[in-house]
Structures
1.
Amino acid sequence: MSDIATRDIPVKAAAETTRSLFERDPKIKARWNAEGRFRAYGIGAISIGLMFLVVLLVTIIGNGLPAFTQTYVHLNIELKASKLDPKGNRNPDDMAKVMTFGYNPLIEQALEEDLAKAGIETDMKASALRKLLSSSVASQVRDYVLSHPGEVGKTVSFEVLASGRVDGYLKGRVTREALAQDKNLDAAHLDIVDTLVKKGIVERRFNLDFILGADASDSRPESAGIGVSMLGSLFMMLVVLVLSLPIGVAASIYLEEFAAKNWFTDLIEVNISNLAAVPSIVFGILGLAAFIQFANLPQSAPLVGGLVLTLMTLPTIIIATRASLKAVPPSIRDAALGVGASKMQAVFHHVLPLAMPGILTGTIIGLAQALGETAPLLLIGMVGFIASNPPTDLVAGFLHPNSAMPAQIYEWAKRADPAYYERAWGGIIILLVFLAIMNIVAVILRRRFERRW
Amino acid sequence: MLLPAVVVVVLLIAAFGFVLGRQRAIAGAGGDISKLHSLPNYYGFNVAIMALLPAFLLLVVWLVVQPMIIESQIVGQIQERTVESYGTRGLAFSEVRRLADGLDIAVERGAMSAEQADSVRTELTDIRNRLGEVGVALGSNVSADILYVAQHYRVLNAAASMARTIAVLALALAGAAYGLWQARPDFRARIAVERTSLGLLISAASLAILTTIGIALSLIFNTVEFFRIYPMQDFLFGLVWQPSFTSDTLSPLGIVPLLWGTLYISFIALLVAVPIGLFAAVYLSEYASSGVRAVAKPLLEVLAGIPTIVYGLFALLTVGPLLVNVFGKGGALGVDWMQGGTAVITAGLVMGIMLIPFVSSLADDIINAVPQAMRDGSLGLGATQSETVRKVILPAALPGIVGAILLAASRAIGETMIVVLGAGAAGRLSLNPFDAMTTVTAKIVSQLTGDADFTSPVALVAFALGMTLFIFTLGLNVLALYIVRKYREQYE
């Protein structure tokens, strides 16, 4: 190198010898700067990606956590026998003839009296005050009375739901300005609420009903819960697990251990890799046309949802299973065959048990994917109704219309009342907790049981 | 007998058969297992398979065929006059089925006795009210003809179900008996069992083909049905998308605005995801220390594990309002470009975030597949690391990266929840990314979750849209897989 340089540019070389070796010439500098910039782009890209993740999680948690608390009102309701049990025989069948409508006057009266007792003076009518409470209060009291007929005639202390607007006000979602256009609640109501909070009659606390309860109609966001759709998801996942694990494992065993290299095997392989990339909504169309239109299975049933999700998860499970079958060294098979096992015995008695941790990991990840999938469920009708009744038995759990967690979240996101947005975010927290648990279990399984050969 | 009960009984027969077959084989060998051809369990398995397999096959075939035969029998019985009032024979038949199901439920809940359900007449009883009491809602009033046919339908169905139960149980017993008869010491039970197992393995693997065929058939049949009502060229080249669920005349259902919305949103998504994903992949594979890599890579992949409904909600409730605050009226920039939160840019941006880990992990794999010798050669010649990446590694990995981008594009085109919640509902041909537009997937959802019945063009168009989507994504996938595979071979 050096002698070439001295021969070609003798004059310049003399000039350049005055420069220090430790000082870079402009061209090198430019190149090093470019290097630095390039590296910074990379760091920037990763930080942008991670920033999105943080923003997403912060948004979810910030918007969703309030859904887990709810505002309650302590109310002493006098259960007047003359109203609730006109026949006076304390027979629940007769008392059931009094509809929730008949309970409203009692509740209004109780509210008025409790306010008076707390020293709050208002010129509002009882029916206007009633708007502080959820419309579900009447049915709550009625259920209580029907299950405790002996309590009629006494004054019972209840903890009832405040209306969605009051709840929103205490959570900072509903402002006084916004109420100007709202016919459901006035600023005067909020003054009362402020006083009640001070007196401890209105209280915000953890709301288990959101996690375990049923969905509610459009006008009662305060009593909506995700529990029933969680059951729907559970039944769907049972179907997916029971079908996709054996079918996926069987298909992978055939492809990995038995299949000859021919056009049929190629066809299967091409199909699997394509199905893995088909948009999920297309599986929904398949479910609608094949399971509901053609096979006349019931619409909105978790069974159908499970079937569709099975077809969708199969490629994931097959790909994972094949990878873990491939990881079992051939010496295991050879040894089994060498001591006289048939090929089938070698696979089922030796290879499959060794591959099991990997298969289970893949299955759990596939299930997690299926649990969060929404689009196909929209097409088979798991939205658009109120999942208000938990299934009564096992068959009903599979066959009766139900929602699923992501479908329920979508349903809430579509409703008009912003109080439902909070429920949707809260639902997402629950969904993500499930997904996180499943993925962590998968990672632990892999770390704990996977063998390196 | 109910279906689950039949299944349980067949399973019980198989379990007993297993025990008996095993015992019979051992007894046949005089208790000396070494005289058997196979291990005793195989004789048991053989009996169980003989009991289960034919019985379940028959059951499945019967379940598929029975409704078809009964439908063809019943449909002809509906009088012409009744058919006219429902529009088509299919609709009249679905009313028959709804009524029959309603009667079933009424009997089940004890609101009617079984004889009553078979003998009620519209002249004497108000069926609609009776069924309404047990929670079965019927659309219109029940005509005498429909009721008569529905009762006939129930009778036929009950008879067929009875025949099915008997046939399946008889076949299970016969199979078990045959398996037992086979269970002699010289019977090669293992061979038989393994042959059946292999058959089962093959059929499990073939399910992938069946699924594809199922998708293709369900799309093709309904698409053909749609084009019978609606002219194909209007669908393919129509510039207006304005479905009307109410009017009887054909509303304009042109796919062009939807395709434009789909492609525009996907383009913006790729604009976000490809640079970020690529740079992240390059940094992770070429620069990052193993510690950084072990933390950053799984964290980025968390983004890929988050369900799309979450991204949809994020677009609708967070990103949309945020963008309006910046670009909308009275926003931070003082421009009035954005009318509402749902827009192409909202959906595109969020979809881009979703695709970042998809692009980065695919590109990471591809960059890692470039042989180390090429890096060493370049660095040895005095190139800096970034020059090596730009001038050696990226050109070498280019086909693979193109494949990855195509896969990401296919993902973006098929994505549903983000666009359903974040993109808008009106089909529009516009260049402004702040306009609300809609996509093929969003319209599939809205056409099929509306109240329209499945035979109207506004519902059937969803299948034609699905067909378009399927062909589009399939083409992209095949192309991408071909490129990626070709590229892998290059360096193997």
2.
Amino acid sequence: MKRRWYVLAAAIVLTSLLVGPGWLTGQSAAQEIRRGGTLRLVLGEDPDSLDPHATTSLTASNVQAFIYDRLVYINQNGLPAGRLASSWTVSPDQKVVTFKLRTGIKFHDGTPFNAQAVEFTFKRLLDPAQAAPFRSQFTELKEVKALDETTVQFTLERPFAPFFTNLSYANIISPTAVQKYGKDYGRNPVGTGPFKLATWITGSSIVLARNADYQQFREDVVNKGPAHVASIVLKIVPAVGTRIAAMEAGEIDFVPLTREAATRFLNDKRFKTIVKKDAFNFVFVEFNYKRPPFDNPKFRTALGWAIDKKAIVEGAWGGYATLNQNPIPVGVAGWDEKIGKQHGMGYDPRKAATMLDELGWRVNPATRVRESGGRPAKFTCWTYSGFDTVKRGCEIIQANLKDVGIDIDVKLTDFGTMSAEMPKAQFDFDLMRWTFAEPVILSLLFKAPGWRQLYSDSELDVLLERADTTMNAARRLETVRQAQVMILQKAVVIPILTDWLMTAAQGYVEGIRLNYFGDIIYEDIWLKK
Amino acid sequence: MVVYATRRLLFLIPVVLGVLTLVFLIRALVPGDPIDIMFFGQMRPDKATVDAMRREYGLDVSLPVQYLRFLGSVARGDLGKSVRTRRPVRAEIEARYKNTLLLAFGSLAVAVAVGLTMGILAAVHRDTPIDTVTMILAMWGLSMPAFWFGLIMISLFSVRLRWLPVMGSESLKHLILPALTLGLIASTVLARITRSSMLDVLNAQYIRTARAKGLQYGVVILRHALKNALIPVVTILGLQMGSLLGGAFIIEIVFSWHGVGEMAVQAIQQRDFPVVQGVVVVVAVTYALINLAVDLTYSALDPRIVYE
């Protein structure tokens, strides 16, 4: 469910943007850029810590992105490119990567960025005593060694395809600051990024000040110097409705749009809207594979054909989603519409009914509910509370399955309880949503034991292991495609849709551009007011 | 009086102990492990890292040991460490508690001002249109969900008129809308209680005597009647204060008023048990202290009430 930050280490995916009326991306080049001012953004919660080795929270990661730089970034073509690293070489066995670093860069505390700082950062990350949650992204990393002032060498246990993507999220921290602040480093973060932490009022707001010495090396950012805005204030606003009201009242400059608010903002010329359709979101039905009849791929396939995915796109997501028959988000490399169309499950209730008949699930004329061996087809669709979209999705599935003689109850539980209860295998099937930008999502979901520790398929595991360890992009993508076909043929999940990433900005916000992940590039933003 | 207050303060110990036990039991029964939630949808780190994290948060020992450790640290004034922020819960609560108190007292001020005025007006003008309108408003307020009323206030005063900020807790200006929302709703109960209490007093003989002596009507109402009618009102005020502290949870979320309520809701969602426990303990103690203060106020209002 949470948004994850991976992206493909080697594939070309075009970012499609649907832009609102009255503005175009890149138009700021033709205008005189106004420097200064404060950009006002919202956070859904107070970050837990700004120490990259003390958190996995998405909110914290978003704030850290202002403060820290990373060795590489993923460019608009989905390929890794140099950021703090100017170049790198990979050993023939694909296990050793040697980076050459840029020079003349300083941390916010004035200390120099160098290979020793990189080594310090990764040694701290790998130290079990640090118990860094982010270490989970670097389980394949064996050793990091500074060879000289500007050269650093990474040694992997085995070739690992998502390595560069993971690296594009690994913030480089100031060793001096870590030693100075000790356990309080998370409240006093020091990086080399475009903004410095100015103030942090717990639970209320975070103020970031422009790093006046900043040099930009990313090619996807137009502004090569310090950010245009003088400061950014991040206001902590947990309630979605309050954020929307604050945007309408002019108290903030950007707001992520929910399905409910989208139509209002898309039709209001006071605001600019940004819609990324090839997002990394993925909504799907998954099963309790340990409970009959859901252990039978044919039964799961029959359910797949009975569900009207288009009705869910329209009815539950208000049309702000792309129908997706592949078991991978639309924006992730390796997604190929043809695979879904050829091997996936469309909508054909008659076909579903025939398949259920063949499986011995016959309709009882008295109850109009199917039965097999005296057991009526009565099951529960489980999803998490607090989100109207998935609840309505379950209700549409309920109506669809009733049409083919299957009775469904809808059960809502808060997400914490749901994720704790799932491995106990006391349910039928659930409607779930993940966000993940890298093909490794297939392994996270389906490689034994799977994220809920319920699925195990040695044949699929072999394919996924190959995909994760193939450093050659083209060959890796071919394996990813094969894995998708296998997942669909076995109906491990019923893919439904990819919902869009939607954001609104005030009319005076200029220079709005997105990076490959669909995140706004704040260094290019300026305020025309 | 001092003996009574001391005895009541000592009674707080079993109350707090009961609250601590209940909170701990609930946390033990609720499914969902904070470490699991932290790694949901990600590659899990190796066992050594997970074990180190469990040790750090004290989740590696049995529940009875966790309970005893919990009681021991609370006795030392240590409410534990947040699983999310790794900061002391006490520091997290301290940073926000003043906001919650500010909102509770701000709303109480609104509730008292509006509720007493409405109640007195309704009682004095009994069975007139003023009484009817006041009581209809009171009924309307009683049946209004606070979060919905809050959204209406935002829509009107912030989005349309742009008079007041939607969110935040930076200044007193930010306090106006949430305090009005909570206070107006709380005032409706006070209005009803004040009305009925005032009606009882207004029929008493000493009021008739006071009027017969030629005292001004306003003086009779405010000095003689209201003071005697206040005892049930103060009782309700004490209870209201408790519900304002608790009810403020939702309003804090709606207005992004950064108090302990907002923090508690997030902590519950993230299974940050130490924070949830800390907030419950602090709110429970506050509630108990407020009710003690209410009891002590009785003797100030009515000298016939003496505590021994």
